[in-house]
Amino acid sequence: MIIPSGGVRVLVATKPVDFRKGLEGLAALVREAMGGDPFSGAIFVFRAKRADRVKLIFWDGTGMVLVAKRLEDGKFRWPGVQDAILRLSAAELQALLEGLDWRRVHEPRQTVVPTATS
């Protein structure tokens, strides 16, 4: 599994796309429909009409990468279908790709350690 680092931008097209599209077709959607740059280093996530399929495209510094996944059992937890772009954290993307509810992923809480004053 490809696991992105914490600082990567993840952009999800919430409206389903034609899953016959390959790398070039999805890159064109990034430019035209999402107003993004497929060579920016961000991960662009696309869903099919059937909620059990996902495709990701991103530039890894040497070429464009296309990742496709189909769940054998169950469905991905997608945001509501609308013509919008959703930004996820790397942890939320990882949960989405595992078929978990990504909305339940939260940033780790920072523990404040009290300091003794003299």
Please provide a written account of the structure.
It is a single chain. By secondary structure, the chain is an alpha+beta fold. Helices cover about 15% and strands about 25% of the residues. The chain is built from 2 helices and 5 strands; from the N terminus they run βαββββα. The protein has a 5-stranded mixed sheet. β1, α1 (about 25-30) and β2 (about 45) form a beta-alpha-beta unit. The radius of gyration is 17 Å and the shape is globular. The termini are far apart.
How far apart, in Å, are the first and last alpha carbons? Answer: 51 Å
Backbone CA Rg: 17 Å
Tally of DSSP helical segments: 2
Total strands: the figure is 5
Low-confidence runs of at least 5 consecutive residues: none
Oligomer: single chain
Shape category: globular
Mean pLDDT: 83
List SSEs in N-to-C order: EHEEEEH
- Sheet bearing the most strands, described? 5 strands, mixed
Q: How big a fraction of the residues is strand? A: 15-25%
Helix content: 10-25%
The assigned structural class equals alpha+beta
Strand adjacency order, main sheet: 4-3-2-1-5
Give short descriptive properties of this protein:
five-stranded mixed beta sheet; globular; alpha+beta; 118 residues
Spell out the blueprint of helices and strands.
Blueprint: E1 10-13, H1 23-32, E2 43-47, E3 53-59, E4 64-70, E5 85-88, H2 90-97
Parallel strand pairs: 1-2
Antiparallel strand pairs: 1-5, 2-3, 3-4
